[in-house]
Every structure is written in structure tokens, then in C-alpha cells.
Known about the structure:
The protein is mainly α and about 400 residues long. It has a single domain, classed as Growth Hormone, Chain: A. The protein contains 17 helices and no strands. Helix 3 packs parallel to helix 6. It starts with 8 loop residues before the first helix and ends with a helix.
Amino acid sequence: MSTAQALPRRRVLFTIFLTVLLDLIGFGMILPLLTFYGQRYGATAWQIGLLFAAYSLAQLFFAPPLGRLSDRIGRRPVLVTSIAGSVFAYLLFAFAPSFWVLVLARALSGIAASNYSIAQAYLADVSTPENRSKAMGLIGAAFGLGFVLGPAFGGTLAHFGGDRAVALAAAGLALVNFLFALIWLPESLPAELRSRTGKNPWFDVRGFAQLAGNTPLFGLLVLFFLITFSFSLMETTLGFYFQQRFGWGSGQTSYFFVYIGVVLVIVQGGLIGRLVKRFGERRLILAGMVLMALGLFFLPTAPTVLLLCVTGALLAIGNGINNPTTLGLLSRLTDESAQGGTIGVSRSFSALARFLGGLSGPFLFGLSSPRSGPWPFWAAGGLLTASLFYARNVLRRISIG
């Protein structure tokens, strides 16, 4: 099997981009409908938060060992196997007889989705350090397109075919993705780099302790956690808030996600490379945090759908700037032979943030009276604002040659 380095760079980038995109379309089909799925099973707000959180909790435990496994045996076999697992998870979701089986299906999907960190390591393998942030922007663009096409497909299928049709379509898409990756996806990690990590344990507690001792790298991971937690507080509460404030159902909520996805595609697919060259990662991370905080403060007070879209754009632009630039810096601070492990740890930090945000957002909303529904958004905005001081300190310590 030839490695990705032996193939034209554009083909390699297109192949991994399409692999991630197909995976994320399936994810995007399901995500905006989770609140309404859970309600049909009679779930409470806290239980629906658990439905969101189960996906992230599974990633928390599985992303680092799968990342290290990809450092050990290569990216391709781990990616292909995880995509096959997502087919089974979507089928279980489609035919879940109870709410708790639904939770189990989401947890299995989370295990399969641990491959996002491996896709990021794949891009690190085939890009130069100077182009890492731009390469990571491809993953962001795939997320954006997934949020455009997935919710659009999911909302339409739910309207005409019901919930099960959405889950079955996601399973079918995952099957196509599996076949595509099996045939087209080359290996990106050279054998000599795999041999350097062949004896490393999959659950490397000592390695994590060493990572914690790397002040700039660990500080950046903590910052990544804070940003992701703030965004997750908003994301898992949107369905409830739209239902309460505007009387929206799954269709309208899905189309708002479509709009957010369009903005993400524009930022991460077309602008991020130029922005990094002009302003650098440090300034962009701080600017992205400011934009996200403004969006979180003003979104729940928007009196019209038009202003709601403006505040949503602030959130999407800020998030679209932050993710690839933060991941690009993490990659540049990491040894070439440990990209999968470090990015896997970053995925766990993200998963922990989404797990806690998934529980906290709906819980806070459930405690709120109808007039105080904005509090989960304001809490997230306040946390981001306070984190700006921490961010400046962390980014000041990072030195890259």
C-alpha cells in the first residue's frame, strides 16, 4: 500500500476531506433533531442532555488510545474500522426500542467519531508546519459543510419520512463512506515513524503526565477546553430555546444549523489560510473568543429572526476562526511521531468539554423559568470573557521557530 506522501498532494487532501465530510453529513443529520427525538421517548431536559453527552463521553475515553493506535499501526486502518463502526451505531439508533438504547447508540457513534482526531493527524502528516492551520481548516470546512448538508437532508427526511428515515439515511451514508475510504484512502504515516512509537502503550498515563508538564501545550489544551465548553453550553440548549422563544420544531432548528454551517464553510474553507498569514494564530484565537462571547450575549435577546442570524454569524465566525488555529498551534508544538496521540488528547479535552456542556446546558435551562431561558447563553459568554485573560497569558508563552 503506497503512502499518501507518494501521491499528488491535492488528491490526498481531497480524499481525507471527502472522508470526513461524508462522516459529518451523517452527524449533522442527527444533531439538530436530538432534542426532539428525546422528547418523543418522554425524556426530561436532563435526560436529553445525557443523550448529547453520551456521544462526547465516549470520545473522551477513546480518542487518545485510538490516536496513539494510529501512531502505532497507521492512520488508514483505524479510520476505515471506525467508519464501519458508525454504520452499526446509526442502525442501532434507527431501531432503538427505548430511550436508553438510544443513549447507547449515541455512545457508539461517539467512539466511531473519535476518528476526527486521526483525520487531523492525517492532515498533519501530509502538510508542512507552516501550513498546518490551513490544513486543519479543511476539517473545519468539512464540519461546516456537514452542518449545511446534514441538517438540510435530515430536516427534509424527518418531514417526509420520519425520524427513522433520518437515521437509516445516515447509516447508508456511512456505508458509502466506508467503501470509499477502503478503496481510495492511502496511508499517510511512513513506516519509520510508526516504528518509533511501536512500543508506546495505548493508555499512556505517563505520557499524559509529561504532556501536562509541557506548560505551553497543556495551557493551549485547557484553553481549547474552555472555548469548546462555552460553545457546547449554547449548542445543546438551542433546540429548547428556539422551541420556547419562537415555537420552532426540528425543521426550523435544522435550518438554523444549516445557516451556521454556511458561515463556517466560508470562514474555514476560504478565509482561514489568509487570516493566519496576515494576523497569526495568537491574535486570531483572541479575536475569535471575543466574537463568540458577543454572539452568546446577544443571541438570546435578539427580538427578530434577522437579528438572531446576525448573532449566530458572530458565533459561527468566532468558532470557525478558533478551531483550526488552535489545532494548528497544537500540531506545531508536537513532535512529528506523536501527532495522533496529541491530537487525540485534544479531542478528549474537546469531548470532556462537550460532555459537561451537554449536561450543564439543558440542566441550566431546565432550572430556568420561561423568562430566564437566556442564562445558559449568558453563562457561556461570561466564561469566555473571563477566559480571555487566561488566553493572553497562555499564548504569550508559546514560542514557535
